[in-house]
């Protein structure tokens, strides 16, 4: 009886409160390494408001993002980030950092977002290099209830630059703690 209650409690916590995720790629280096395991607060935005710029979140990207290289929901312009994702959500989970929110204007310069005319202080990123996706000089406006996501490893991240902003209802929760491997344990 006690074992069944413990299992039921553990499943309930995972389903509604905190869920573990394993990081599948190097897109969040140096903040989170490939293979690390993080905990995600599933109630963070249900009870605590909206995602903030700088939050690391787990979400379902627009369908087509999981194909690698992304799929924009509208005709692409090589001088701007994808302004709109596909209508359906992918079943995959991605983890990225929120860099812009609803109503923000954003373009990308040297791998860094320029949001409403200002470059944020981002000491946690890995620089972009000289890839074409590192410079997208034409601004886009983030639609209502959408968020623009970028990986911290800017030269090696498949993110909103390719497949567009993410609807609010596709955000699962805020990542807050690395629990595996032991050398990586801690808050971020």
- The H-level CATH homologous superfamily, spelled out, is Umud Fragment, subunit A
Give unreliable regions as ranges. Answer: 3-13
The structural class is: mainly beta
Indicate the multimeric state.
single chain
The overall strand count is 11
What is the overall silhouette?
globular
Specify the helix fraction band. 10-25%
Radius of gyration: 17 Å
Largest sheet geometry: 8 strands, antiparallel
Separate helix tally: 2
Mind telling me the CATH class?
Answer: Mainly Beta
CATH topology: Umud Fragment, subunit A
By CATH, the architecture is named: Ribbon
SSE string = HEEEEEEEEHEEE
Number of domains: 1
**Beta content:** 25-35%
Distance between the termini: 37 Å
How much is the average pLDDT?
88
Structure in a nutshell:
The chain has 188 residues and is mainly beta. It has helices at 2-16, 160-163, and strands spanning 18-22, 37-41, 56-59, 94-100, 105-109, 112-115, 136-141, 146-150, 166-167, 171-180, 186-187.
Labels describing this entry:
mainly beta, Umud Fragment, subunit A, eight-stranded antiparallel sheet, three-stranded antiparallel sheet, 2 helices, globular
Explain what this protein looks like in three dimensions.
The chain is mostly beta strands and about 190 residues long. It has one domain (about 1-185): Umud Fragment, subunit A (Ribbon), CATH 2.10.109. The protein is about 10% helix and about 30% strand. It is built from 2 helices and 11 strands. The protein has helices at about 1-15, 160-165, and strands at about 20, 35-40, 55-60, 95-100, 105-110, 110-115, 135-140, 145-150, 165, 170-180, 185.
């Amino acid at each position: 009886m006690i074992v069944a209650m413990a299992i039921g409690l553990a499943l309930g916590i995972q389903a509604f409160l905190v869920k573990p995720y394993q990081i599948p790629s190097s897109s969040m280096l140096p903040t989170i390494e490939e293979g690390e395991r993080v905990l995600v607060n599933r109630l963070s935005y249900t009870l605590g408001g909206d995602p903030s710029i700088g939050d690391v979140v787990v979400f379902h990207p627009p369908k087509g993002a999981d194909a690698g290289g992304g799929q924009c929901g509208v005709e692409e312009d090589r001088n701007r980030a994808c302004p709109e994702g596909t209508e359906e959500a992918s079943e995959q989970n991605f983890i990225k950092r929120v860099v812009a929110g609803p109503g923000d204007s954003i373009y990308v310069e040297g791998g860094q977002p320029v949001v409403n005319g200002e470059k944020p202080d981002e000491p946690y990123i890995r620089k972009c290099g000289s890839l074409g996706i590192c410079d997208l000089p034409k601004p886009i406006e983030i639609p209502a209830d959408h968020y623009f996501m970028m990986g911290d490893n800017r030269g090696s991240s498949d993110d909103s630059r390719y497949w567009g902003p993410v609807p609010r209802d596709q955000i699962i929760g805020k990542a807050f703690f690395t629990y595996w491997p032991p050398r990586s344990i801690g808050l971020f």
